[in-house]
Each structure stands twice: as C-alpha cells, then as structure tokens.
Amino acid sequence: MNKKLLVISIDSLVNEDLEIMQTMPAFHEIIEQSSIVHNVTSTYPTLTHSIHTSILTGCYPQRHKVIHNEQFFPYQRPMPWFQEAELCKAKPMPVFAQEAGRTVAYVYWPVTLGAKADWNLHRGGIHAKTADLLNTLRERATPGLFDEVYPYTAECFDMEDHYCGDDSFCCRAVSYLIEKYAPDVIYTHLVLIDHARHVCGVHGEHIGKCYAFLDREIQRILDALHKTGLYSDTIIAICSDHGHLDIDRVVSINRFLRDHSLQTADEAGNIQSYEAYCHSCSLSAQIYVKDPQREEEVRQLLWDNRRLLGISEILSKQECISRYHTDGDYAFMIETDGRSSFSAMPNFPLITPTDNSDYRTSKATHGHQPERGPQPCFVVRNPFANGKVSIAHGKIVDQAPTLAALADIPMSGCDGSPIRELTDLCV
Fold it and tell me: ∠ CA 141-123-61 to the nearest 5 degrees?
C-alpha cells in the first residue's frame, strides 16, 4: 500500500485556535478524525524559517544550522533570509522519501529554494511582493511548473492582501498537483494567521475571520483528495511553528550599543563598524562581539540596563546549547521581558511604540523562548490508524520522524523520535 502524506503548516497556529477551527467545515472534517498533540515545544529562537527546518528534518538548529530567519551579514541591509535548501545541513524527511522511491512536492515551504523535489514552487517574497513577482516565481520553480499551475491560480495574484493571495495560491497549487500528479509527499506553508497576529494581536475576532478564509481554501484540497479517490490513502498533518506574545514597545539594542561607542552607523541605519551587534530575533536577540575579551564587558553593560532595555535573561552560548540545542557564532543571547521587542535599527530612537512596519515592531510577535505564551499544536488525521488519541505535550523535532514512520518511510539521523502514541495506533 502506497501511503500518501500531506503536511500543511499554518504559521502561528496555536492550541487555543482549535476551538474556532472546529466550527468550520473543512477544518472540522480534518480535526474530528485526528489525533492531536496539544502543546508542542518548538525550537529557539521561535522564528519561522529555523523552526520549519526542524519540522522538515527532525533536528534542532544546532544540527541543521538554520539559526534565524536571516543570515548574519551585519553590513548588508536588509540581510538575506535563509532560503536556499543547501543552507540546511541536516537531511530532510522528503529526501528520505525520495530515496524510498516516493515522489515529493514543496509548495512555498521555507528553506527549500533549489531543493531536488519532483515539484517545487518557492515563495517569491517574504513580507512584501517581490518586484517582477511572476518571473521570480517562474525562475524559482521546477522548470515549467509555475506556467503549468498559473492558469489555475492567476486570480490569487490580484487579491488585495498578498498574504491571502499567497495562501490561496498554495491551496490551489496543492489541489492541482494532487489531481494532476498525486505526489506521495506534499509540504505546504500558509502564512495568513501569522500576519494577522502580528498586525492585530494574539487573539481577537480577526483570527476567526482569517481561519474562515483558510477553511474555504483548504476545502479545495479536500475536494481534490475526494475527487481523485486519494482521501482514504492520505495522512493529513496540520502543524505549526510558534505562538506570539503581545508587546507594547520596541527597543533598539543597536542604538544603545551605538550610544555606548560599540557601533557606528550612518543616518540611514547602515552599519559602518561594530564591536558589538544585536541580530534581532524580535523577542530575543543574538549578540555578536568582535573581540572575545570584551564579551563580559558587553554582557554586563546590557545586564546593568536590563530594565530599560526590556531584557529578562542573558543566555551564554553554552546555555543556548544545553537548554535549546541551538548554536552559532554569536557571543550570547538576550531574552525579552515579555512586553518589549528588539529592533535591529541603530538609527531608531532607543524606545518606540509598535508600528507594524516590520515583524519585529508589530503589535504581537515571536522569537521568544519556546516555553512561553500560547503553544503550537500538531494535528494528524491518519486513515491507517486504529482510533485517535489526545496528547498533552510533544516536541517539534518529533514530527518528521513520526510522519516518516506513519507513511512507512525509513528515516534516521534525527534529534527527535517517533511519537509512540501515534505510531502504536497503526493497524
């Protein structure tokens, strides 16, 4: 039996959302038949591209090396995001699937640009439409695939909200691929809920409205599975990466470092030189110090001003490794007090209100320690299981090996392990 696997990541989906999702037809159809892991411990910092790489590989950032949304290039603004598949240094589950003779499709999954999938459609821009978007999508896709899919997705590019357009494109593209090619493994990433939380806050009526939109789009996928007769052969997993925290102020750590002669920048915010640099993760930050002998000086300066700067904790590299299995070339990390986000801009005033101009300065954001705030959940509809279970807690690195085991795909080298409560249900 050739089991199919469809993984839908709803960025920033949290356990509290399940109640409203179950009032909507497509989500209800999936959730009602599913086992649920209600509170999933993510990785640190809780940033989308890093976590999605852990979801795909079953490994912590220390192993896969995607430790941020952005790569660290302090003299370049904006810094390039982690996008290319080659930047991931751990083996993704879909590669194991291909080695087992399965076909694989990615639709807008982070850090898969250039991945050797059978079908790959890669996002054209992160938080804004890329100039010449259609050509960018065409160039990033498997040759010929975007032009093949475009007639079925064209109206998505005319939607006023490009986050809605992107998610609609994903669902329509997945539906097309199911009907035309029936891939064995599909991974797709939806971003509307994350955007809504950034702009309007963690909870509120806006979240329900966004799920109503997504429900209509996901219904297209279910319709395609029913139409092709693949519904009874497809494991459907809905996963997420992180929650959010509401904030009320933004602190420019780089401005603070600049004011203490540890950094220089021009008025446009371009770094000219630095002794210490804050690579913001929104609700945490990686602090780089050029001279290791000055590390304690910088650490003490930040700690002495922790109340002003909104810092609740400073984690050494060793603490990052031992507690969160993340590592990098930074000297240490700082963590938010729960109400402050960290800006990366050295020419900003030291403290500003939220303004929604960037994910670091929005009304709600993330990047915080994974045990804080609302938690993501993991929903698995497995037609091959004998029943369903409800599990209180889980780990995000367990998802890839669990799905591999459920789909009969050999996988090794993970930091995580299959969730036995789910695999033991298989008949």
Answer: 110
> Strand, helix or coil at 285?
strand
Q: Which residues contact 290 (CB under 8 A, 6 or more apart)?
A: 274, 275, 276
Looking at residue 224, what is its pLDDT? Answer: 98
Please determine, for residue 126, whether its predicted confidence score (pLDDT) is greater than 90: no
CA distance 341 to 345: 12
Q: How far is CA 128 from CA 162, 232, 383, in A?
A: 8, 38, 38
> pLDDT digits over 279-332, tens only?
999 999 999 999 999 999 999 999 999 999 999 999 999 999 999 999 999 999
User: What residues pair up with 249 in beta bridges, in sequence order?
Assistant: 340
Region class of 132: left (phi > 0), else alpha (psi between -120 and 50), else beta: left
What are the residues whose beta carbons fall under 8 Å from the beta carbon of 148, sequence distance 6 or more? none
Q: Which token pair is 338?
A: 């729960």
Say how far apart CA 178 and CA 239 lie, in whole Å.
Answer: 20
pTM of the model: 0.97
Question: What end-to-end distance do the CA atoms of the chain give, in Å?
Answer: 13
Q: Long-range contact list for 258-266, CB < 8 A, 24+ apart?
A: 258/346, 259/350, 260/301, 262/298, 263/346, 265/346, 265/347, 266/347
Residue whose token pair is 């709600």: 364
245: left (phi over 0), alpha (psi -120 to 50) or beta: beta
